Amino acid sequence: MSDLRSQIASARRIVVKLGTSSLVDDTGQVSPAKIDRIVDAIEARIARGTDVVVVSSGAIAAGMVPLGLKTRPRDLATKQAAASVGQIHLAQVWGASFARYGRATGQVLLTQSDAGSRERARNAQRTLERLRQMGAVPIVNENDTVATSEMRFGDNDRLSAIVATLIAADALVLLSDVDALYDRNPAEPGAVRIDEVRTGKDLEAVQAGDGGVFGTGGMAAKVSAARLAARGGVPVLLTATENIDAALDHAQVGTVFHTRPGRKLSAWKFWALYAADAEGVLRLDEGAVEAVTRGGTSLLAVGITGIEGEFHAGDIVEILGPDSEAIGRGEVAYDAAELAGMLGRHSDELPEQQRRPVVHADYLSNYASRL
Predict the structure, then answer these.
(1) Which one of 172, 194, 255, 266 has the minimum C-beta count within 10 Å?
(2) How far, in whole angstroms, is CA 362 from its chain's centroid?
(3) Which part of the chain is the PUA domain (predicted)?
(4) Could you tell me the strand order of the sheet in which 304-308 lies?
């Protein structure tokens, strides 16, 4: 057994993400039999002393049949209506399945704006922690009833990665309908299975596809989520739901994504880069970009060529290079109105109260070292 698979097998706190196809039958209806098998495997893992948080897709799909929908809705209002019906049904099935073991479940519905606000993210973290302390299993889903395109995580794979880092999970298990990562569609002749991903170089030849008829994720979303979680210090196991017993036991299935020793982002920097709502934009010259991407350097006014947005001191801002390339994010120390008069000026040209960095190195995170 590899060290990483052994680590996942013995992890004390894990997030298990289920795709829509893992929860519904061929007609798109939620399958109690499928969920029962999943819960049996989760309960076996809990019996070994592991805390488990479930991230469950399927709300929109679960609402399709009751509403007489034959295909997944495309317009926002119908998606939200289907989710409002489906969330109730999905929660009932999860609750009934865990009740066989005398265990309570708690539904936690999140939007991107919940994770984007530090205070609301902490509230979600406290709720998940309290459910764990009380022996209940949190069932997390994106709140598709109220989420708009601007408020969405994009898919529940990304949501699971953010939840895993939010609760400092020891592992994330991504389950779908594919047994592992391949360099192309596994149905194609000559497709090569990839057992481990250590760096982005291991993915250079991979052609990942989109989601199926009932889902939105697809392998591309899962790879992106796995890399995201790994950047936050959470190792990932990706495999098929039919392998859930092995995945939650010895972990000798699927593809594992390694974290990078010494490259783990702090919880704040991970949140700032991947979850926080950016309230504005800072544009840098080439010299400032080079300094920021080296790491450990604060951003000064002299390297800023332009600003956008009505941000305030303490807000998170997006940092862009001369060609609008994304450099990173940080917590800005000045209001937009004050900063506008400081652009391009050396510190010794500014009044003493404006000589502190625009973004201090401790509150600046860049994308340069991403996995």
Answers:
(1) 266
(2) 23
(3) 280-359
(4) 304-308, 280-284, 316-320, 326-331, 364-366
